[in-house]
Amino acid sequence: MAMIELHDVRHAFSGNPVLRGVSLSWDAGEVMGLMGANGAGKSTLIKVLAGVHPLQHGRISVDGASPDAADGPLAARRLGIETVHQRIDEGVVPGLSVAENLLFERIAQGELPAVGSLRGLLPAARGVAAGLGLDWGDAVLRRDVHELGIADQQLVLLARALSRRPKLLVLDEPTSALSAAETERLFGVVEDMRRGGVAVLYVSHHINEVDRLADRIAVLRDGSIRSEQTQPFDWSVAVRDMLGERGVRELAEKNDQRGEDTVLELRGVQLFAGSAPFDLDLRRGEVTGVVGLLGAGKSELALGVFGAQPFQAGTMRLDGAPYAPKSPAKAVAEEVYLVPEDRAAQAMLPGWSIARTASLPFLRALSPSGVLQRRKERADGRAVIDRFGVVASSEAQGVDSLSGGNQQKVVVGRWLRGRPRVMLLDEPFRGIDIGARHDLSARVRELAAGGSAVVVLASDVDEVLEVADRVIVLVEGVPRLDSYAVDVTRDRIVARTAALNGEDVA
Amino acid sequence: MAVPEVKGPQVDGDGAKADPAEKVTATAPSPRTGVRELAVRYGFIAITVVLFVYFAVAEESFRQPSTLFSMLKFASVVAVVGLGVTLTMVVGGLDLSVGSVAGMSVTISAMAMVFYAQVGGVAIAVVLLAGALVGAVNALLIVVLRIPDLLATLASMFVIMGLKLVPVDGQSVSSGMVLRDGSVAPGKFTPDFLAIDRAFIGPVPLPVVIVGLLAVGTWFFLTRTRWGRLMYAVGANPEAARLAGVRVGRYRALAYVLSGVFASIGGLILSSRIGQGDISAGNSLLLDAVAVALVGTSVLGLGRPNAWGTILGAVLIGILITGLTITGFPYYGQDIVKGIVLLLALLFSFTLSRRRSRYAPAAVI
C-alpha cells in the first residue's frame, strides 16, 4: 500500500460538484505533480487534504491512518500533512514577529508559552529557519513579519511547515512569489524532502518546475483525474488533458473572417514588471482569441485596454488617435467595452433585476434629462432576454436567481446596446453550459461581422477556436504565437500555450 | 416552520409596489408569499399602526390632530438628518459626522444672527454652505485620500465638534449676551428664522412640510433618476459599477455632500426650535439618525436604504416616544425604546428576511 492514498474523494459546494471522485496514490519519497487549468478543482482538493474543507465523500489515508473528519485542519496536521497554501496572507500573522510566525503553531497549541519574552523564542525560531537553510539573525527574527518581502514571507511559511516534520508536504503554487534564486532554494528543499522519505504534492501550472521536480504527474480537469504519467512525461498529452479536448476540429470548421483596418494599436505594452514589452494590433471585423494559462496576463491585457488597471508600460492608439483611458468610464465613452472575468465579483449587483443590470452601462441613454425612462428600460431588458434567449420569467426577475449561463448572457448582452469599437470578453464561457456557449459564440461572431474588433480571452483552446478568426497565445505576459486560426493547428496552439521558456515542446 | 419558496423574486421597481405593466410579460409569476415574507415586508408598518391605535384608545389627548402634528414635528429633525445618512448608506458608506454638522449649524446660525446681526436668510445660506463644505471635506478624505468612510467621518465629527466651540469660546450663543470685549451682542434670533420651526402651512407645521418635500425629493432622486440609480449601483458592488463605466468616486462624493447639506437643514430646524446657539445641540442626533436609517432599510422589507423607510422609522420612533410620554413612561427610558425598535428592525432584516441586507454589517461595524 502506498504511503499516500486518496480514494474517490468528492466535494461539492452547495450541490455544485467540484471534485467528482479523485483517486491518487503515491509513495514516500515521491513528488507528485498535480496540474490543472483554472477551476479544475486543484485548490479544493488541497483544502480537503489540509482539512480546511471537511471530507464529504471518499477516503484519505497517510501511512495507513485516516484523519478524523470532525477535527479539521488539526487532524490533518496530526497525520503529518503540512500544507503551504498559495495565498501567503492566509498563512502569516501580521503584527507578530518573524520568530513568532515561525513558531506560530507551537504557540497556538500551547507547546510554547503564550506569554514570554521574544528573546526566549529566538533560539527555537532560529532552528526552524535553519531547517530551510535560512541563516536569519536575531534582527530579522524580531521584525514584524509584514516588513519582510513577499518571498521571505513565503519562506517563513515553508520553514514552518518543514519544522513539523511532515509525512506529506503539500505545496500550492509555491514559486508564485519567489525569485529565481529563491526558487532554486525551494527546489533544493523539495529534493531534500524526497531523499528524506517525505511524500510531496507539488501543485503548479509551471510545466518546467513540475517537469524538473516530479516523479509522477496527475492532471485534474473538471474535478477528476484525466491522466497520470511517470517520468519521462509527455507534456503535449498532459497539456491536452489539462485544457480539454472536445474532438479535434477539421480545418474547414474554423472561422476565417479577416478584418481590414486596425482599430486598436498597442505599442511597447508591458503586462508584468519583468515581462518583455510587445506590440499588438486589433482589427475591425474579426474575433481575436487570446489563449493563455492562469497567470499568462490575459486579464492584465483586458483590464489595461479597458482602463481599469494601468499597464506597466506602453501606449495605445484607437482608430489612429491617442488612447489612454484612466478609468473604465473613459473607455466606455470611447466605445471600448469589457465583460470581466469574474462574473460574481466584477459584474453582478446582488438583488438587481435583469432590466437594471442590463441598463447600467448605458443609463445615460435611458435618462437624457436625468429622469429614468422606466418603460423604455423594461423594454430594453426584454430585448436582451429575447435576443440572447435568456431563460427568465421576466425582465424584472432578479439576476441572482438566474443560472450562470443566463447571468453571463445578461452581462454580455447589456454591452451590445452600444456599438463597440473594441469588445473584450475575459473568460466569457466559464461556468456556463454548452448550449449557452454556442448562443454566446454566435452573438460574438455577429458582433465582429457588424464591424467591431472583438477579443475573447480564455484558457481553454477549444473555447477560443470556437469563436476566433485569429489566435494569439500569451505566455508569461508576452504573445508567443499570433496567427489566423486556419493557418495553425490546434496541437501547435496547445504546445505554444505550454511552452517551456518559450520553447516548443511538441 | 416551512415557508414556500418564492421562485424568481420580482425585485424591480420599488419592491413593494409592482408596476402593472411588469405583470403582463411575467410568464410565471408566483404570488404565493409566505408568512415570513409578509412579516418582513409589512411587519413594521403593522406594529406602527397597532401602537398608534393603542395610544389613541388609551389616551384622550393622543387623539387630537395637534398631537399627531407635534409628533411629526418632533420627528422632523431626526428624519431630515436620517435622510442624509440614508444617502451615504446607499453608496455603501455611513456618515458619522451628521450629528456634529447639525450641532455646528446651530452655532453658526446663532453667530450669524447674534454676533453679526444678519437676517435669517443669510444665516440659512451660510449654514447650508457650511454643511456642503463639511460634506465636501468628507468626500475628499474618503474618495481622494481613501480613508475608510467610518474612520474619516469619525475624525471629522470630532474636529467639527471642537471647531465650533472656538469662535464662541465654548459658550452657547443667545440674544443679548455679553461679548468678549464687554459689549452686548448686536443681533438676535430674527422672527423669520424662528418661524422655520413655529410657522404652519394650513394645519401642518412648517418642519413637517420641509421634511415631506425633502422625502419626496430624495425618493424621486434615488428611484427615478440616473444619479440615484448609480448611487445604488455603487453601494451594491463598487467594482461591478466601476467596470460598467460608473464614476464611482463621484457618486460617493455626491452622497457625502448631500448628507452634509441634509444635516445642516436638520441643524437649522433645531436652531429655530431652541431659539439660541446651544452648544450641546445635536449631540444625540447621530445615533438617532443612524438608527432611523437602519430601521428604514428593513421597514418595507426592501433590505436596502430608502427614503420612505427612513421617514417611517422616524415617525415610528416619534409615535412611540410621544405615546409613551403621554402615558407616563419616564423620559429617561426613551433610549431603551429606541434600542428595542432598532433591534426589532435588525431582526426583520437579518434573521427573518431571506434577502440578506448588504448594507448594515459592513457599513455599521
If classified by CATH, what would the architecture of the largest domain in chain A be?
A: 3-Layer(aba) Sandwich
Distance between the termini of chain A: 36 Å
CATH top-level class of chain B: Mainly Alpha
Radius of gyration of chain B: 22 Å
Biggest sheet overview of chain B? 2 strands, antiparallel
Question: Can you describe this structure in just a few lines?
Answer:
The complex is a heterodimer of chains A (506) and B (365). Chain A is an alpha/beta fold and 506 residues long.
Q: Could you describe the 3D structure shown?
A:
With 506 residues, chain A is an alpha/beta fold. Chain A has three domains: 4-243, P-loop containing nucleotide triphosphate hydrolases (Rossmann fold, 3-Layer(aba) Sandwich); 250-335 and 419-506, P-loop containing nucleotide triphosphate hydrolases (Rossmann fold, 3-Layer(aba) Sandwich), CATH 3.40.50.300; 348-418, no CATH class. Chain A contains 19 helices and 19 strands. In chain A, the strands form four sheets. Chain A has a six-stranded mixed β-sheet with strand order 5-6-7-3-8-9, with helices on both faces. In chain A, α5 packs across α7 (150-163). Chain B has helices at 20-25, 35-58, 65-90, 98-115, 120-144, 149-163, 191-198, 206-224, 226-236, 238-243, 248-274, 285-299, 307-326, 334-352, 360-364, and strands at residues 200-201, 204-205. In chain B, β1 (200-201) and β2 (204-205) form a beta hairpin. Chain B has a single domain, classed as Orthogonal Bundle (ABC transporter involved in vitamin B12 uptake, BtuC). Chain B is built from 15 helices and two strands. Mean pLDDT of chain B is 85; it is low at 1-32 and 356-365. The chains are: A alpha/beta (506), B mainly alpha (365). At the A-B interface, α12 and α15 of A face α1, α9 and α10 of B.
